[in-house]
Design a protein that fits this description.
By secondary structure, this protein is α/β, with parallel strands linked by helices. Helices cover 45% and strands 21% of the residues.
Length: 336
């Protein structure tokens, strides 16, 4: 009986040991593997997550990386998805958006051999500043400045109330830098213009009616162009612009496809950022403990397709401003 107990105990120890080896093997880092973890808006948000997934698929196609997207249906999925991605041996795990900052901070501490990147959140703002993490940040105020400049020129040409507006999601740095640039650019083109600003407090497409409500109020106050900075929710703001026959301005992705009411879009190349991070990770040259910064100069920021109704002279003026920003002669504000 004693021998039987000893044998059973030994077998149990061996099974535990084998399980530990299996977990360790699963967690070993593979530089040819990469993953993204979405926020709750889904891959079909026609904005932020869609762009991150585009960058992931590009890495898969051009670099031959094995990649996967972990979809977060609720905020409680953030950390489990980050952990699962690390346990599957991904050399880099990219968290898409500031809402995942806490999960990145925690997961990076648990998996020190995995590289973690977070879109739109600076590394220095991570609570523990993990050495194996980095931020993928954007000078969105630069693109915001350009679309604001163009919007104000169009309002000036039309006459009437000189008002444009912005509908943001949450009042956070990665939203406010867009709006700060937008306001400054509009004032550069027309010092007398008023810029109305509102926030929905939400980003998912399911919140689009809230953004539409805010935009309709702004239009009622005379806004001739509505800049949406609220992700999927902001589609409602653009719908309000269409309904009231004023200009809508897209964000992140080029949203000109929504219709002829779109003046242009402030483009944030989240796809470029994700692809770049995965490429550097695969090559073993990705530097953590800081940020990769994307701007007009390195094409990480841009302006989308412009309506053919915009005079060529206005586009030329905007492009001249763009050159001055790239040269450092104009520095758009990042804070309101």
């Amino acid at each position: 009986m004693k021998l039987k107990r000893s044998t059973t105990a030994l077998l149990g120890v061996l099974l535990v040991a084998l399980a530990c080896v299996a977990v360790s093997a699963a967690a070993s880092k593979d530089d040819d593997k990469g993953a993204i973890v979405t926020d709750t808006a889904g891959l079909n948000d026609r904005s932020f997550n869609m762009l991150a997934n585009k960058g992931r698929l590009r890495a898969q196609k051009e670099l031959g990386m094995q990649t996967r997207a972990y979809i977060s249906k609720t905020t409680s999925d953030y950390l489990p998805n980050m952990v699962a991605a690390a346990q599957q041996g991904n050399g880099i795990v990219v968290a898409n958006g500031f809402l995942l900052a806490e999960a990145v901070n925690t997961a990076a501490g648990q998996f020190p051999d995995t590289r973690f990147a977070i879109v739109d959140f600076p590394w220095v703002a991570l609570e523990d500043k993990p050495a194996n993490a980095l931020g993928l940040t954007f000078k969105s105020e630069e693109s915001g400045y350009l679309v604001g400049y163009l919007a104000a020129l169009m309002a000036q040409q039309k006459g009437g109330k000189q008002v444009v507006s912005a509908v943001g999601g949450m009042k956070i740095p990665s939203v406010d830098n867009w709006i700060a640039g937008f306001r400054a650019g509009a004032k550069k083109a027309n010092p007398k213009i008023s810029v109305l600003i509102g926030y929905s407090g939400l980003f998912p497409p399911s919140a689009a009616p809230k953004c539409k409500e805010i935009a309709l109020k702004q239009i009622a106050q005379g806004s001739q162009a509505v800049f949406q900075v609220a992700g999927g929710c902001g589609l409602g703001a653009l719908d309000a612009a269409k309904q009231k026959k004023v200009w809508g301005i897209g964000v992140d992705a080029d949203q000109y496809y929504l219709g002829p009411h779109i003046l242009t879009s402030g483009v944030k190349r989240v796809d470029t950022a994700v692809f770049t991070a995965m490429k550097l990770s695969q090559a073993g040259t990705l530097k953590t403990g800081g940020d990769l910064v994307f701007n007009l100069k390195n094409a990480g920021q841009d302006v989308g397709k412009i309506s053919p109704k915009v005079p060529k002279a206005f586009i030329a003026k905007m492009n001249a401003i763009k050159k001055l920003i790239i040269a450092g002669k104009i520095k758009p504000p990042a804070k309101l």
